[in-house]
Amino acid sequence: PLPARPVTFPPYEIRKLANGMQVVLVSQNEQPVVSVRMIIRAGAAHDPKGKHGLAMLTATLLDQGAGKRSAEQIAETIDFIGGVLGTGAGSDLTSVNAIVMKDSYDIALELVADVVQRPTFAPEEIERQRAQALSALKVAADDPESVADRVIERLIYGFHPYGKPDSGTPDSIAAVTREDLLGFHRRWFGPNNAILAIVGDVSPEEAFAGAER
Q1: Which residue in 21, 72, 116, 183 has the most C-beta neighbors within 10 A?
Q2: 191/125 Cα distance (integer angstroms)
Q3: Using one digit for the tens of pLDDT, what is the confidence trace for 54-95?
Q4: What is the per-residue pLDDT across 119-132, written as a single tens digit (0 to 9) for each?
Q5: At what angle do helices 178-188 and 123-141 cross, to 10 degrees?
Q6: CA end-to-end distance (rounded Å), the chain
Q7: Which pLDDT tens digit goes with each residue over 85-103?
Q8: Rounded Cα gap, residues 129 and 64, in angstroms
Q9: Closest CA to 40 of 84, 87, 103
């Protein structure tokens, strides 16, 4: 191995809002870009028994209609400002990430707030995402690498949540209801279970004021 070299992290600030949410700020002025990432401390390992894939399905639906915007309107809003909005879930975390130019920081916060706090879980979007998830599982079942990954996880972790498939099974995905999605969101998506990371060309005053708002 190469000799160890010192690593210098950029300066950062951490504040806790009145509602218990942590906000981490890293100011970087090299480019006029801001990244806003919300992390929820819940993922596939928190799926209820028989509902594996619930966290993943919840994450994919967050930006498919939220607040007063439909899925199409959310996509149009982020596209219009030349930004990127994405959602995802892993074993322990769910995340929502927006990357925008610095003059669109407020719009990014507004979108992330809607997507995290007010997803609509529209029935037609649930069925569309369910169909995509089932199709992905079918493709994965024919992929030796995907099958090997699942076998290895089960051999290592057994029946611990880490040993169960994050993306679920055809039966578990088919069993997920809208009430399951609402329940998962209601249980885990709270401010005291979340971290907001803001990185980029934004002042501490503007960053924290936006988070408070």
Answers
A1: 116
A2: 26
A3: 999 999 999 999 999 999 999 999 999 999 999 999 999 999
A4: 999 999 999 999 99
A5: 90
A6: 48
A7: 999 999 999 999 999 999 9
A8: 9
A9: 87
b/e per residue, 92-115, with b = 16+ CB within 10 A? bbbbbbbbbbbebbebbbbbbbbb
Residue 14 φ/ψ, nearest 5 degrees: -125, 130
Beta bridge partners, 197, equal 24, 37
Q: Are strands 94-101 and 33-40 parallel, antiparallel or unpaired?
A: antiparallel
Q: Give the tokens for residue 110.
A: 């507004």
In SS3 terms, 41-73 reads as CCCHHHCCCCCCCHHHHHHHHCCCCECCECHHH
| pLDDT confidence bin for 169, thresholds 50/70/90 | very high
Q: What is d(CA 169, CA 133) in angstroms, rounded to the nearest whole number?
A: 9
